[in-house]
Amino acid sequence: MVSVSYIAKNIRVVGIVQGVGFRPYVKLLADKYGIKGFVRNLGGGEVEIHIEGPGDSVNSFINEFLTSRPSAIYIEEYEITEAKPLGYGDFKILESRVERSAISMIPPDMAICEDCLREILDNNNPRRYRYLFNSCSFCGPRFAVIKALPYDRHNTSWSSFRMCPHCEREYWEPEVGGIRRYYYQGLSCKYCGPGVRLLSIDGEPIGTRDIIHDTAKLIDEGYIVAVKGVGGYHIAALASLDDVVLKLRRRKKRPTQPFAVMALDLDIAGRLVELNDSAKDLLKSSQRPIVLLPKKPDTPVSKYVSPNLDKEGVFLPYTALHYLLLSEVEDHFLIMTSGNVHGHPMCASINCVMNKLRGVVDYVLDHDLEIAHRVDDSVVRFTGDKVVILRRSRGYAPMWVRIRRRLRRPIIAFGADLQMAGAVAVEDKVILTQYIGDLDEYETLEDLDRELLVHEDLRY
Q1: I want to staple 91 with a disulfide (CB 3.0 to 4.6 A). Which of 30, 106, 163, 394 is the partner?
Q2: In this structure, are 220 and 276 located in the same domain?
Q3: 8 Å CB contact between 303 and 241
Q4: Domain that holds residue 334
Q5: 445 phi/psi in degrees, rounded to 5
Q6: Which of 135, 153, 181 is the last residue of a domain?
Q7: Residue 267, phi-psi category: left (phi > 0), alpha (psi -120 to 50), beta (remainder)
Q8: What CA dihedral angle connects 321, 327, 331 and 333, to 10 degrees?
Q9: 416 in the same domain as 317
Q10: Dihedral of the CA atoms 39, 153, 365, 289 (nearest 10)?
């Protein structure tokens, strides 16, 4: 018989609570307090928790749950209700259910965290040393790889990769995986993760013993390379040589519009632009936007990267692949601009690169993790001390913005003609898509239509 002091609660949580280690966090917290019950994802991007145990333990669980949790988890709303104790023998992570009662908040893509960065630099960790897709519950691609809710591996691009025995142990055993890898849906390593290849623009494989080193060598020699990230392809080229920058401008038919520069770390960025504490925090944030900052008078960046401007658009690597590539090039900074023809969406497939970037790039650094959603880089600037978002995309989209009134019916909107994004407004929320492109291109309209339909399908 269950004692009188044995109580139960049901908790429903909405926010960024799928794909960010929320269920493992709840499981480990429940084990800490000896709580029984379950946690599971629901189809609307919600999480359902049932807890039962001694009253003091349940209350301690709830207090810590509401006041202390990993920074990647964002709780927008929660509801705690009384429940009937059901006599669970332990606490489990249950299989997800498709039912939904709330609008979902899909997690944005997050930059590589410090723990994962340390792993790719640690040669005592053979599975993850220089592993180009290293990530954990608190970093890595989310929106770019999600195909359906709830956020489980089979609903993402990771479904193409079967976990090796080492990763399976981390996934299923909390004492092995810890909070960063236990039940992490994007779990992979060198033995079971995506493959990488170096191609000529004609599609011919380039033989290489160290693909990152050899790609960096090509860039240092003045070649222009398309680099596949998690949300699309960048065009990478030397930012320090006038001839290379001017060659890229001719090929891309972009005579004056500035290029973004990716720097290895804050020390390298500090050689290019003026940095204060706010700029450093923004550059190192999980959003990793391109930040417009005042140029250093003695900057080694070519004047043709952002001609006639006093600011440079600078950002830091947000994947292991980008970090290792920047580590290998001699300058430790590169032009890293969107892989597109002017006005068109960023390429997200190798077919797009081969067709539309032929004549622009010489080589392609490619991989086989599918990009489910094209997500370009976000761009921000400071106006006084305030951060102003000029292009809201990777790291920010598709999080919603709350408004002060409740809408009588859903609304769809998009614009403006240039630098366009779409939005779905429902209840008291405006759900913004990522930056898409310019409206005068038919391909942009197709992309917008697809994204608006995807947002509707994922959330309802």
Answers
A1: 30
A2: yes
A3: no
A4: 196-367
A5: -65, -40
A6: 181
A7: alpha
A8: 40
A9: no
A10: -30
The 3-class SS string of 336-377 reads EEECCCCCCCCCCCHHHHHHHCECCECEEEEECCCCCCCCCC
Question: Are 174 and 229 found together in one domain?
Answer: no
Q: Return the structure tokens found at 104.
A: 């979902």
227 and 356 part of one domain: yes
Beta strands in 350-459 (DSSP E): 363-367, 379-383, 386-391, 400-402, 411-415, 421-426, 429-432
| CA dist., res. 271 & res. 7, Å (int) | 59
Strand partners, 201: none
CB of 369 closer than 8 Å to CB of 262: no
Residues 331 and 230 in one domain: yes
103 domain residue, yes or no: no
pLDDT at position 458 is 47
pLDDT value at residue 299: 98
Is residue 78 one of the residues assigned to a domain? Answer: yes
Q: Which two tokens stand for residue 19?
A: 């794909």
Question: In sequence order, what are the residues at sequence separation of 6 or more whose Cβ sits closer than 8 angstroms to the Cβ of residue 139?
Answer: 72, 110, 111, 112, 113, 116, 286
Which residues, at least 6 apart from 332, have a Cβ–Cβ distance to it below 8 Å? 263, 264, 265, 268, 326
Question: How many CB atoms are closer than 10 A to CB 141?
Answer: 29
Q: Is residue 189 part of a domain?
A: no
pLDDT at 223: 98
What is the rounded average pLDDT for all residues in the chain? 91
Query: 204 and 176 share a domain?
Result: no
Q: Write the DSSP symbol of residue 221.
A: T
Of 182, 203, 232, the C-alpha closest to 336 is 232
Name the residue type at position 29.
L
Tokens of 366: 């490619």
User: Closest Cα to residue 10, out of 48, 54, 44?
Assistant: 48
Same domain for 403 and 299: no
- Residue 119, classed as helix, strand or coil, is helix
Contacts 24+ apart (CB under 8 A), 168-177: 174/24, 174/27, 174/28, 174/31, 177/24
Strands of 429-432's sheet, edge to edge?
A: 400-402, 429-432, 421-426, 411-415
Q: What is the pLDDT of residues 167-201, one digit of tens each?
A: 999 999 999 999 999 999 999 999 999 999 999 99
CATH number for 440: 3.30.420.360
Q: What six digits make up the tokens of 197?
A: 């290849």
Task: Say if residue 343 is in the same domain as residue 450.
Answer: no
With a cut of 70, list the residues of the chain below it in pLDDT.
1-4, 44, 99-102, 343, 438-460
